[in-house]
Amino acid sequence: MRQRIKFIHRGGIVEIEDVDPTMTVLNYLRYERALTGTKEGCAEGDCGACTVVLGDLVNGELRYQAVNACIQFLPTLDGKELITVEDLKSEDGALHPVQQAMVEANGTQCGFCTPGFVMSLFAEMHSGPKADRRHIDNVLAGNLCRCTGYGTIVEAAVNVAKSDVKDRFHSRVATTETLLESLRNEPGLQLNWQGRHYFAPKTVEELTDLLSRHPGATVLAGATDVGLWVTKQHRNLDAVIYIGQIEALKTITTQEDGLLIGAGVTYSDAWGSLAELHPDLGELIRRIASTQIRNSGTIGGNIANGSPIGDTPPALIALDARLHLRSKDGGREMPLEDFFIEYGKQDRHPDEFVEAVFVPFPKADSRFATYKISKRFDQDISAVCAAFHLVLKGRNIEDIRICYGGMAGTPKRASETETALIGKEWSEATILAALPAMARDYEPLSDMRASREYRRLAAENLLRKFYIETAMPEVPTRIVGDGGLAYA
């Protein structure tokens, strides 16, 4: 395997060796390159002040996406193009069109957050800009402004989108694609630094071999959680195996009865397919995090992380999803709900990795819904996340699957509540009679996001809400979202 990180910056290939494999891109830019336009605000992927743009080849074409530099490890730049706010100005010093739009709209106050906003708008400009206000709000949800200057920033974004302006990055697409293609043909990456190791294999076979030799290594996908282990917990990771270079894990396959989603598929890339499967899944992905996090985080990583407040597992468990795991000895498959054993413990052997998750299509005669309760509507961690999958036979409940996140040490089905409902008439009286069973299903904790009493009441009320939406669809219950369905 190759010993040097190689990526494109300012039109040329940069090569780096002998570097801390968990150095963040932010620290590299600020402390190694003195490129201080990229700011540190939160160091946890929340505020967007550190936003940079990465270019990569997708199906042979160049794609630019905004990411948070504060939780991206430097070696994950390998094979990509890096663009920072300093790179936008022209050789004669003229402002980039996005920067000029910000000036003309007075879209800055203290200026600390401005580079991050500019980079988010730059990425949007290169992905088919839309002037729709809701779309722009969604694009910028991961960029926070403490001076509350959003009105003028949105105005600048609308003006850029309406102008459909081009820049020099558009004119050099062919050259950039050629450079990226040359890097794609390089072998995988291996770094050794002060007794710590980083690997970026390019095939599943290489990955299984590495895990057999380094069981218990940290398997890295989007770094949206692992990055915080370094920036907030200051942990040293002895061995990291990055799966972001393995194309076989970044595919979504439509099968006869569902979708097979590779572990390396990001939220952004899964969004459209899941929204088509069910609009509520699309809206869940929209609200799961910011644009920058959706561009980095993966469905497989959200599952493998095992967090009790991960947003995708409850919905996938309600749909009876199945998990695919693999090691050098072969693969195995299990119901997703069986993967979560207890808080911090999953059914994954030290030399195994999450390969894919299979999501069945909802039955034609079923009803499905998922709800996310959080303090902020956008870009916040859930206090409670609920999912319901109901099959009726006439007016009676033939089957129902109920799963909550945030109510236990793992994403967990409400089995007692399900038993109390199945075979009964789908009615308000049945729901009210079944609610006491939920106290036997869950003993929620109190923490900074919600009290146990709030969580218990919210969980009960979400079941009641699901009943209202299925029995009385004419009753408005949701705030309009961007995932394909009204949502609250």
How do you describe this structure in short?
The protein contains 19 helices and 22 strands. By secondary structure, it is an alpha+beta fold.
Describe the model.
The protein has 19 helices and 22 strands. It has 488 residues and is of the alpha+beta class. The chain folds into three domains: 5-86 and 172-242, Beta-grasp domain (Ubiquitin-like (UB roll)), CATH 3.10.20.30; 89-166, [2Fe-2S]-binding domain (DNA polymerase, domain 1, Orthogonal Bundle), CATH 1.10.150.120; 366-487, CO dehydrogenase flavoprotein, C-terminal domain (Enolase-like, domain 1, 2-Layer Sandwich). The strands form six sheets. It has a five-stranded mixed beta sheet with strand order 2-1-5-3-4. It has a five-stranded antiparallel beta sheet with strand order 10-11-16-12-13. Strands 6-7-9-8 form a four-stranded mixed beta sheet, with helices on one face. A hairpin with a 2-residue loop joins β18 and β19 (396-405). Residues 482-488 have low confidence and may be disordered. Residues 3-88 form the 2Fe-2S ferredoxin-type domain. Its EC number is 1.17.1.4.
In terms of DSSP E residues, the strand content is 15-25%
CATH hierarchy, class of the largest domain: Alpha Beta
**Large-scale geometry:** globular
Pick out the low-confidence regions: 482-488
Supply the key terms.
single chain; 488 residues; alpha+beta; Ubiquitin-like (UB roll); DNA polymerase, domain 1; Enolase-like, domain 1; 3 domains; five-stranded mixed sheet; five-stranded antiparallel sheet; 22 strands; 34% helix; disordered C terminus
